[in-house]
Predict the structure.
Amino acid sequence: MSEAIAYAGEPGAFAEDALLSYFGAAVQSLSVSSFGDVRAAVLDGRAIYGVLPIENLINGTVRETLDLLRDGALEIVGEAVVPVSLVLAALPGVTLEQVDRVYSHAQALAQAEEYLRSRPWALLTTYNTAGAGAMIRERGERDAAAVLSPRAAAIHGLTPLTGPIEGVQGNRTRFWIVQRAGGPARHAEAGPARTTLLVGLRNEPGTLLAALAVIAKADVNISKLESRPNRVGEWEYIFWLDLDGAASSPEILGVMQGLAAVTLERRILGSYPRGEAL
């Protein structure tokens, strides 16, 4: 199996920032086109780990990532939290007055919406923030700009036309580090842990309350709760929970035991050190 770490996007993407912050600079990275391609690269052996976004402070959960981990083929072994700083950048010599369209990923456009709506630009989505910069450079578009990080702008030869334009100071994105399920365990790191669960419930009154009561009784904090269609029954859902604590702790072991009586399905998708914002 390759020792590469897969991420979606071009060099300079926020996923690459997460990769570098978690693994350091002396690693082999594998740039792929989509989140699904990250999953495929890990499962077919082109990469030993993958980096997938799970949550942005402004835009919330990246639900595609939840769906990619639904079948249990991947497990979460770590997380990285990276700051999101966005600028508007264009080819050298281009001015704001020359720009008539702006490219970026839909989430980045949303995060900078207040600024972008201050001018009559056409806002066009691309698959990745850094990829927007690469496209402008490759096409030589002198009437376009990209919303991307200052690092990505520099990598792709663009000049910032603005300072930071993200709508919320302190914006950041949380990324999961994933590997093939059952792969070698990473060295345990000190500090607070997080355990991510998938729980399936009967479509009956009170079933979610019963599951939450088990967790509350164990005095375990739920830091995130998300629902997704279970893709089996009509209008039936599974729930994703982030619990504070390690899977090996007595509290989480007690939760798993208690959930057995009130759920149709319960599965730990990963237990890992919580990432700290850079």
